[in-house]
Amino acid sequence: MDITDSKQFPLIAAALRHVSRRDLLDYFAAGGLAALASALPERARAVDADADEVVRIGYLPITDAASLLVAHAKGYFEDEGLKVAKPTLIRGWAEIAEAFVARRFNVVHLLNPVPVWMRYNNKIPAKIMAWGHTNGSGIVVGHETGIKNFADLGGKQIAVPFWYSNHNIMLQMALRKAGVKAVIKSQTAKLAADECNLQVMAPPEMTAGLAARKIDGYIVAEPFNALGEIKAGARMLRFTGDIWKNHPCCVITMHEDNVKRRPEWTQKLVNAIVRAELYASQNRKEVAQMLSADGKGYLPVPGAVVDRAMNYYDVGFYGPTGALEHEAQWHNHRIDFQPWPYPSATKLVVKAMNQTVVAGDTTFLKGLDPDFVAKDLVDYTHVRAALSKYPDWAKTVGVDPAHPYERQETVEV
């Protein structure tokens, strides 16, 4: 898929007339997405996925998309009486952000802080409908780098999938605790011993970047950590689910006006997604095979890689290296599936982003009230109704059956 194609990605094509491809996400993060969207010709916005009754899904080739993909593969949308198009694979976050803004899709999964950035910085009315999963990411480093802990990231080059991501948040939590400063500099710039240089890289490019020694490590969603372990000799430094217990990563996102205009249609869509998450939590091996290139081909990696990405969380293997410290207490997995969007986590994200180094203007974050965002950004009505339809969700990892809609966030770097 060519991101310079002005017909498929008119905003990106316009942006590349002002900045390089490498600086594209910085440009969007600085508010360029909103400016370009407002200038998008009406004819370019005419292909509107919200204008018909067909479910149109955009996704990145990561296990974070499992709830959408399982719902499609198992026919859950059709069971709800909905028509659904084949999900469209998008390789990067800039592309899926544009496609969502241009309404090529009416449901996508986005990194948890992205709807915050969209809604309050770019004035794009995104609405979080549910969590797509929990955990499911990690930071891996090159085997030749000598990196054993976060303090060793000083003087190193690390890739993140997007500035506005829980990956960036957790990486910088760990860096601060280790006494390392996160910086954003040219890759050729000289780094101090206590500086870790960050850059944005599309998830599918990270493994090759590590193998070619263009970067020293990366933090990203699966299956690209598992792929790095298998294909590039990468070493898992730490699982993110071992830093922030059962953290959200990608969230199911829709356009607010579409949600308001079609509440029954929206409810059916959310029902299918919740059902799919429950199925994924109960059938992990089958789902790994289904998603892989050896199954239905949603993810362009072999079944063995996706199986490792979803199911290999061996404390005997990862414990001695420090990659896994809390499994015995937290009882989670490499990836888990739980749809309820806990307000406490949204509040943590808003607070944490104010301490996280990103490119672009972050003024919009300074005045954001975490309590307001938790109420304004997230639609709880449809997902709660769906959870009532599938009460076994309360037995999934990370849910207290006695108080399923409440929790306290646990972060232990």
Extract low-pLDDT stretches: 41-47
| Total number of beta strands | 15
Structural class: alpha/beta
Terminal CA distance reads 38 Å
Features:
2 domains, five-stranded mixed β-sheet, 15 strands, 19 helices, alpha/beta, 413 residues, six-stranded mixed β-sheet, D-Maltodextrin-Binding Protein, domain 2
Offer a concise description of the structure.
This protein is α/β, with parallel strands linked by helices and 413 residues long. It has helices at 10-15, 24-39, 66-73, 76-79, 93-101, 114-120, 166-178, 203-211, 224-231, 256-261, 263-282, 284-291, 303-311, 315-318, 327-330, 343-353, 363-366, 370-376, 381-389, and strands spanning 54-55, 57-59, 83-84, 88-89, 107-111, 126-131, 134-135, 137-141, 157-160, 181-183, 195-200, 217-221, 235-239, 250-255, 335-336. It contains 19 helices and 15 strands.
Describe the structure in your own words.
This protein has two domains: 1-134 and 248-413, Periplasmic binding protein-like II (D-Maltodextrin-Binding Protein, domain 2, 3-Layer(aba) Sandwich), CATH 3.40.190.10; 137-242, Periplasmic binding protein-like II (D-Maltodextrin-Binding Protein, domain 2, 3-Layer(aba) Sandwich). It has 413 residues and is α/β, with parallel strands linked by helices. It has helices at residues 10-15, 24-39, 66-73, 76-79, 93-101, 114-120, 166-178, 203-211, 224-231, 256-261, 263-282, 284-291, 303-311, 315-318, 327-330, 343-353, 363-366, 370-376, 381-389; strands at residues 54-55, 57-59, 83-84, 88-89, 107-111, 126-131, 134-135, 137-141, 157-160, 181-183, 195-200, 217-221, 235-239, 250-255, 335-336. The model is unreliable at 41-47 (pLDDT under 50). The relative contact order is 0.15.
